[in-house]
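Hi everyone,

Forwarding the result from last night's run.
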Amino acid sequence: MDIVFPNNRVADEFNSSKALARRFGPENAQRIRRRVDDLRAAPNLEAMRNLPGRCHELTGDLAGLLAIDVRHPYRLIFEPADDPVPRKADGGLDWSGVTTVRVLRVEDYHG
């Protein structure tokens, strides 16, 4: 998939192992990079269902976003960036049609 970022600051952080390690620690940085690499290597979002990390849609205040587990409690948060966002007939997200994602942040949204 293609990966885009909301701005250059976020892109610089996610493209630098050093910056990620400084912010999240070396082990989390390595896991974050692995999850981004998994997204990049996948042909579409549907392929992420079969990889480690439990890729899932979020609900409530975070509806419209998706997350991949990094290491408890952190999640890699992203959104479909295709225009228009692919939808199934019932209005749900068509995971097989998503070929571009916008990586937003890593956070603990449970706290």
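The domain at 2-107 is CATH 3.30.2310.20 (YaeB-like fold).

Cheers,
N.
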